[in-house]
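Fold this sequence, please.
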Amino acid sequence: MLNVKINGKAIQVPEGTTILAAAKQANVKIPSLCYNADIPAWASCGICIVRMEGTARMIRACCTKVTEGMSVVTHDPEIVKARRTVLELILSNHPQECLTCTRNNQCELQSLAAEFGLRNIRFDHYIIDRPIDNSNDAIVFDRNKCISCGRCVEVCQEVQKVNAIEYQGRGGKTVIAPAAMAQLADSPCVRCGQCAAHCPVGAIYEAHSQRKVWDKLADKDVVTAVQIAPAVRVAIGEEFGMQPGEISTKKIYAALRRIGFDYVFDTNFSADLTIMEEGTEFLGRLKNKGEMPLFTSCCPSWVDYAEKNCHDLLPNISTAKSPQQMMGAMIKTYWAQKAGIDPAKIFSVSIMPCTAKKYECKRDETMKSSGFQDVDSVLTTREFARFIRQSGIDFNLLEEEEADNPLGPYTGAGTIFGATGGVMEAALRTAYAVATGKELGDINFMPARGLKDVKEAKVDVGGTEVRIAVVHQLGNVEEVLKTVRDAKATGAEPPYHFIEVMACRGGCVAGGGQPYGATDEVRAKRAAGLYTDDMKSAIRVSHKNAAVQAVYAEFLKEPHSEKAHHLLHTHYVPLPLYK
């Protein structure tokens, strides 16, 4: 522990603590713009400058570590003046389009400008007009609003290790873009949206779908059906003053009806359905010595990454569609048939924590297995929050309502899909029961939980040792892939039998479309909310979901039946890296 002073207040902090973190411990807020806890600090913006007491030297708090006896001044007239000048310089090259910007009222630059009372900019206003890149169906890049803070580059290169974007040019001509100034659609981008989630301004954001959905809601000849993903229920409340992890499932149902959706379903139902299909596939491969290990397939960014980077491992990815796509197929076949509704009139919407889901719903022909596009439009959690506000709804005062049958009921296993390790845990609960004919005594599979980069465990399933791995954050996946490839190359036993991959850190709870400001603390709280929802569920295993059992009895017959395979499974195609 080191003894330091922040504005004269003596505190103790661990060795290696930055001035920024030490000030936070002392309840002092140092403004910053380029800093984000997920990425290495690199002192780009200069707004977090402070000075050593008794000197005129300015240092950057985000990347300067404290030393024994250090005394730091974080605010005085000279420091405030310097910070204001930095902000003015940034704003002199930034569009004044706050009213029409997607980040209006949620922009870190806007907040700092208000905090510093900026009303006039002393420098000439100069904007380099650059075209907007909206080429990849999920992410929009408006470079005119880019402040070159570098967060998007750092998260893409250092956290995700996708390397879709980089710095081009030097000095005032610096541009952030794919190599050779290509479009995002012609880059290695996997549409995870972490660049958008980490951008402090409106330079990168999700491709908007609001107007299309509003138009369909207004069309009396259209039947609108909507589904909500597991992770949405523990994050949407943050947009309305609730704490991360607070469960608002039944308020969401109510809000969707107030907005005007005709039928409200829950993706947790199709998560249970996914377990039945994926679990059956896994047990079949295990029994028949099929291609191992089996990788999960519910994360579209991971699937995109694999199709571009892992051509040799595509046979190892489960053919089961994601819960979003399974629900879309069920809405326009099973439910349409039961409800007596022409599927051609159904407009199917999903509320997702993920930007890549916008791409997934129209990825290929298998996403039209109902004879129509199974999911017509995808809204992120952030877009959903805008719908709630536009509808004049006080979210906190909504009375709770239930989802519609028969695609609403879900189990605890379905809800934990939203956290890293949740798919694996849900699958093991059912796989064990199917393989042994017995229920697991303690179904809380703790080794799969938490934010460790790669989690490993061994599970006894009916006398067979099953080795599993759980990996989240794409930057960690190559370590696991190398282990698998090395074993294949030598003909050795597979290191794992079952591997869950989630592209985003923490899983879907911190997807690219979730409310801004995710940290590991926030991720843990959102995940804890899902596990609480699981614990409170009367049924906690997918195979005991009566509504899912009815789907098989009335329509699909059994997991992996011919009809189930047509509607609920897909295939993968090797893609070039730059696509």
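The chain has three domains: 2-75, 91-206, 211-568. The domain at 211-568 is CATH 3.40.50.1780 (Rossmann fold).
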